[in-house]
Amino acid sequence: MEKADAVHSYLCPKENTVIILPEDEITHVGTASMGTKPMKPARGVVLAVGTTKAPGNGGQHAMDVRLGDLVIYTKGKGKEVKVDNDEYLLLDRDEILAVAD
Fold this sequence. Notes:
The protein is mainly beta. It has helices at 2-10, 23-27, and strands at residues 17-22, 41-49, 51-53, 60-62, 70-74, 79-83, 86-92, 96-100.
């Protein structure tokens, strides 16, 4: 995953944050229409994962998403970041709806 290596050289996600490569960046299909219909879920590949605090003791543990997972999230959520002409998305863990098998 050379894109993951590029992301790690610039960005390190903090607690409860995931960096993904949105599917439209993977396929280079383009952008979706922003009409009046509700936003459909979008997909992306996890390139970097922060840690999360364990309940109660304040310690940290790994999140339930892993590097390389294909995740589904609500389009329009997160923060877009551009690194070397590639666009990535910073999502909070709770903005991820599902992990695809």
